[in-house]
Structures are given as C-alpha cells and as structure tokens.
C-alpha cells in the first residue's frame, strides 16, 4: 500500500513537471526544425555530406518532438469520458490495428468467454492501454512468437489484487511468449521513465500510464512473468451491468438502434 501511494504521488509529480516543461520544449524544437528546414532549402540538393547531416539533425529533432508530444499527452491527464463498453467488442474492433502493429511473424489470438462483459470506462483510454500492452509484447518477443488477448470475468476479494475492492471484475489478459521479466524489473515497471529498452525506443511511460488509467477507472493491474518464457499482464476493471439499449441508448453507442 505504501509503495502504491508513493507510485501515485510520483505520477502526480511527473505529470505536473512534464506539463510545465514539455510545452516550452516543443516550441524550442519547432525553432530547431524550422532552422534545419531553411538551411536545407538554402543548401539546395541535400545529396552530399552537409545534406546528410541536416537530415540526421532533423530526424533527431523529430524524435524528440514525438517524445515531448507523448509527455504532453501523459501530463494532460485528459478528462476521461466513461461509458459502457463491451470488452469483447472493443478488442475485436482493434484486431486489424493490432495485427498490423505486430507484424507477420507474431501470431495473434483473441479468446473471449461466452458472455459479452461490459465495463464503464473511457473507450479511448482502454484502447490505448491495450495497444501499449501489445507493443510491449511485440518488443519482448523480438518480432516472433504468439500474443493472446483473453477477456473474461472474475470475482475478487478485498485486496486480492493490489488494493482492489471486493466485487466482480472484467479481466483483459494480454499474454506473450517473450523474454519475460525478472522480479527486479516487475518491481519497477510502473515507475514513470523506467525502461530497459535502448534510448529512442522506450520511454518508460507505457505501464505507468496504464497504471494511472486503471486506477482512475477503479480497477487494478496484475503481472505474471517468467524470464525466458513470457508475460501476462491482466487488467481488472469493475464489471458494469449494462442497461438494455432501449432504456439507455447513449450507453451503447455501437449498438444498431431501431429508428
Ligand atoms: P517502455 O515500453 O517504453 O520501456 P513501459 O512502462 O511500457 O515502458 O515498460 C517498462 C519496462 O517493462 C520495459 O522497458 C520492459 O523492460 C518491461 N516490460 C513491459 N512489458 C513487458 C513484456 N510484455 N515483456 C517483458 N518485459 C516487459
């Protein structure tokens, strides 16, 4: 509980800090990029050495700009717009995107238990979380292996996963056959900026962002991992008893409503 509180305070502090810095930093980068662009134009055909240097400077600045945009999105803590979302439908709707993100050498499988369970979440936030988990799985598998996304439901007791409150939860479990994590890594994964990936590849914000999202949704997150064998990250989101479309049409935006 202590560690979790520290985690949340740290997320808060990072949010405030990055919000203040990222915005100004992005403006400065725009100046740098503008300068490079002008220099390239004056230099005409950028096919020689100077042109190459300018290109790599632009590439670096663009990468830095992408990172600050991620930091801004992280700091902004955009207001969540919760609605009834069927976990199964949301994940099926992402399958093309996930296939494309993971490439041909990774087999993707989705497993849903028979009923369609609803959660009360910000749809965009949940999609983001799942995509982030899929990207982490891809990176852990070094381009080949199997990814499984499973939805289901479970009843948890008080504190049986993290700080959860007793109740019914929808589970979304993302499993990979990748490199796995050591206990030391598992202990630190929710820390903002903790990453084991090379500079330019990892930001260390993925899991801390998911952690924040899941906390705000009243859920929990669990990790089971074995070095060399693979990892399962499970999101536990409070189960929502969805009203029938006729009674609350706005709760089910994807349902085809009779005119
Ligand atoms: P990033 O992906 O940018 O490094 P994350 O917060 O998403 O940031 O992840 C932090 C670290 O946790 C990763 O650098 C990696 O070491 C570890 N990790 C996350 N997901 C997995 C996974 N599926 N398999 C193995 N390690 C993982």
Task: Explain what you see.
The protein is globular, with a radius of gyration of 21 Å. The C terminus is likely disordered. Strands 1, 2, 3, 4, 5, 6 and 7 form a 7-stranded mixed beta sheet that branches. It has 7 helices and 7 strands; from the N terminus they run ααβααββαββααββ. With 259 residues, the chain is α+β, with helices and mostly antiparallel strands. The protein binds adenosine-5'-diphosphate. Adenosine-5'-diphosphate binds next to helix 5 and helix 7.
Q: Estimate what percentage of residues fall within beta strands.
A: 15-25%
Query: Helix-strand pattern, N to C?
Result: HHEHHEEHEEHHEE
Low-confidence stretches: 251-259
Largest sheet: number of strands, sense, barrel closure? 7 strands, mixed
Give the proportion of residues in helices: 40-55%
Rg for CA atoms = 21 Å
């Amino acid at each position: 509980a202590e560690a979790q509180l520290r985690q949340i305070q740290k997320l808060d502090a990072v949010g405030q800090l990055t919000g203040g810095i990222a915005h100004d930093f992005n403006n400065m980068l725009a100046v740098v990029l503008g300068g490079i662009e002008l220099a390239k134009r004056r230099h005409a055909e950028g096919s020689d050495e100077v042109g190459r240097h300018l290109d790599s400077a632009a590439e670096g600045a663009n990468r830095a700009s992408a990172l600050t945009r991620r930091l801004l999105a992280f700091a902004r803590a955009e207001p969540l717009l919760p609605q009834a979302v069927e976990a199964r439908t949301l994940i099926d709707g992402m399958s093309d995107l996930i296939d494309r993100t993971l490439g041909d050498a990774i087999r993707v499988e989705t497993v849903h238990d028979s009923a369609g369970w609803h959660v009360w979440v910000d749809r965009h936030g949940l999609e983001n979380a799942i995509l982030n988990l899929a990207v982490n799985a891809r990176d852990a598998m070094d381009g080949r292996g199997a990814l499984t996304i499973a939805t289901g439901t479970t009843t948890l007791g008080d504190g049986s996963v993290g700080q959860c409150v007793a109740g019914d939860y929808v589970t979304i479990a993302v499993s990979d056959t990748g490199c796995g994590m050591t206990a030391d890594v598992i202990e630190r994964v929710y820390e903002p900026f903790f990453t084991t990936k090379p500079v330019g590849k990892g930001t260390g914000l993925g899991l801390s962002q998911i952690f924040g999202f899941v906390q705000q949704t009243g859920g929990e997150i669990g990790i089971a991992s074995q070095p060399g064998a693979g990892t399962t990250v499970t999101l536990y989101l409070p189960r929502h008893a969805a009203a029938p479309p006729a009674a609350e049409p706005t709760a089910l935006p994807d349902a085809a409503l009779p005119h």
